[in-house]
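Anyone up for a design puzzle?
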């Protein structure tokens, strides 16, 4: 029924499984197991479980299945597997498909935990990983080999908001038979067209915009039915990174309002980026949706909008950045993003503290850089708050 609906309608209705009570709000099936009418029925279900048959919550659960079907319909992917966190999704997608001797090419500008999985974990099991500047198509072309099994990148990098050309990298990877895995957190399902642009696997930390209200950790791996059910599911259900039914319910309700929140946050981010252009205390205002962004044309082609996060660079460095953060009254200092509340982070001393200085330099993570995940508050309040805090800085 929901196949032909537009994304905003799918985000509200797709995947709903109503019980015999006809409940309006999706039920939380907070159960780890399921009973069988007979021993024969148990045997049959273990042999092959039908679409409405469940065995154990690590394998699947009706509330989790609702979330998986809804997010798959929204993203335009054939299937999805829900995970306990965004990192369970990143590590599960990679580990389920790779084996010793495989080669992976990855963008270097990655979320710290993603970098750990690629640099420390995969290599320990004999996977060779080559890192490239994700914005440089020639570097991808030079690094992708005949034996490359996969390429991995964040479509918008954290915290300097560089954009990777999904269609461009996918064309290079597919020419060599490599799978394209995209961590699409900053793009959000609302502004994403990653599957149509050539991504074979799309990964979200649902902790970010999908929950969007700071309550629960979660993640999801999206791809073809074949990849999700034959490669990802066996690995995830046996290694233990599945999503809990309660989390799935939180995320389902999050999907209902995702579009409203992300649109409002994007509009607010656009307003703030515009208001801060040329500010005397800032050396840079980085917002993918602003015409001053180095890859503005790519952003328009790939997403049409700049998303919910911007970064500003205070000329006077760390002390000024700290004075700015301490003077903020509407937003909060924290390290989550995609939340209804405006959240500010000083990457150099928190999320990216452990990176060696040369890598911080290479990624543009300066002492004055502040990442602003814009919330749904009144934009006039946000602009006034940021301007008064810049005065103090
Ligand atoms: C937060 C984040 C993750 C990890 O998600 P968790 O839900 O915190 O495990 C992965 N990639 C990106 C780009 C993120 O922002």
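Challenge accepted. My sequence:
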């Amino acid at each position: 029924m929901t196949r032909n609906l537009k994304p905003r309608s799918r985000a509200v209705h797709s995947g709903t499984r109503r019980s015999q009570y006809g409940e309006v709000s999706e039920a939380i099936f907070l159960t780890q197991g399921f009973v069988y009418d007979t021993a024969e029925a148990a045997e049959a279900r273990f042999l092959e479980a039908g679409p409405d048959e469940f065995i154990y919550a690590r394998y699947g659960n009706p509330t989790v299945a609702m979330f998986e079907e809804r997010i798959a319909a929204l993203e335009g992917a054939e299937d999805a597997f829900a995970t306990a966190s965004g990192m369970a999704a990143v590590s599960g997608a990679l580990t389920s498909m790779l084996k010793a001797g495989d080669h992976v090419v990855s963008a270097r500008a990655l979320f710290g935990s993603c970098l750990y999985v690629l640099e420390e974990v995969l290599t320990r099991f004999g996977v060779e990983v080559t890192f490239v500047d994700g914005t440089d198509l020639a570097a991808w072309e030079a690094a992708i080999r005949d034996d490359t099994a996969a390429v991995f990148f964040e479509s918008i990098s954290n915290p300097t908001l560089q954009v990777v050309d999904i269609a461009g990298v996918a064309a290079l990877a597919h020419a060599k038979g490599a799978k394209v895995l995209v961590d699409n957190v900053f793009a959000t399902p609302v502004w994403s067209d990653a599957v149509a642009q050539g991504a074979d696997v799309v990964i979200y930390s649902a902790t970010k915009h999908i929950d969007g209200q700071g309550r629960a950790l979660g993640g999801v791996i999206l791809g073809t039915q074949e990849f999700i059910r034959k490669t990802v599911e066996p690995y995830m259900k046996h290694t233990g990174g599945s999503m809990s039914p309660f989390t799935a319910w939180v995320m389902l309700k999050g999907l209902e309002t995702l579009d409203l929140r992300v649109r409002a946050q994007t509009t607010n981010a656009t307003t703030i980026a515009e208001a801060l252009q040329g500010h005397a205390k800032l050396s840079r205002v980085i917002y993918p949706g602003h015409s001053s962004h180095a890859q503005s044309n790519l952003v328009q082609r790939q997403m049409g909008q700049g998303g919910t996060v911007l970064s500003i660079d205070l000329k006077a460095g760390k002390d000024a950045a700290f004075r700015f953060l301490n003077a903020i009254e509407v937003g909060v200092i924290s390290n989550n993003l995609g939340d209804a509340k405006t959240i500010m982070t000083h990457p150099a001393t928190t999320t990216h503290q452990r990176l060696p200085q040369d890598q911080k330099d290479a990624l543009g993570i300066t002492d004055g850089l502040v990442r602003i995940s814009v919330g749904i508050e009144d934009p006039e309040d946000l602009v006034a708050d940021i301007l008064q805090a810049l005065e103090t800085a």
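A detail worth pointing out: The mean pLDDT is 96.
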